[in-house]
Amino acid sequence: MRSRTADWFETKIRYEKTMDDGMQKPITEQYVVDALSFTEAENSIIEEMSTYISGEFKITGIKPAPYHEIFFSENANDDKWYKTKLQFITIDEKSEKEKRSNINYLVQASSLQGAVKNIDEVMGGTMIDYIIASIVETQIMDVYEHSAITTKKPVDERPEYEEEDIKE
Length: 168
Description:
By secondary structure, this protein is an alpha+beta fold. 19% of the residues lie in helices and 45% in strands. The strands form two sheets. It has a five-stranded mixed β-sheet with strand order 1-5-7-6-8, with helices on one face. Strand 2 (8-18) and strand 3 form a beta hairpin.
């Protein structure tokens, strides 16, 4: 398991999908993308989906995701996404009362039990007391992470006066 914190956007895309019987059927699918703005989210989902969709498609919705951290599974069988709410338990030192903070996560797993196992795997490495308040299977098809292209030219760090000596 690995987790990733970012600004996530839930996007919906509508297109004509070829079904098993060869018929075209209009469907809407939901995806999550890592982006800094609505415009970047729209560009990311268009770029990702244009390789999978032949024909026209339409972005029908973009909204900021209610979670900032996603737990990714390394298991190829984990093909579902679960929206989870964890309650972190802290004790107020002054009043000595228990305080619960709700935090939402998106977890990749193949089943509800798998989602619980994956949450425990990630959170087990922390010292925080938590309770799983809810787990709900989503209609999210996939999550696309931002991949920065780092193909810069090597920088010549010699001072300019040394560069001139070499050119002569």
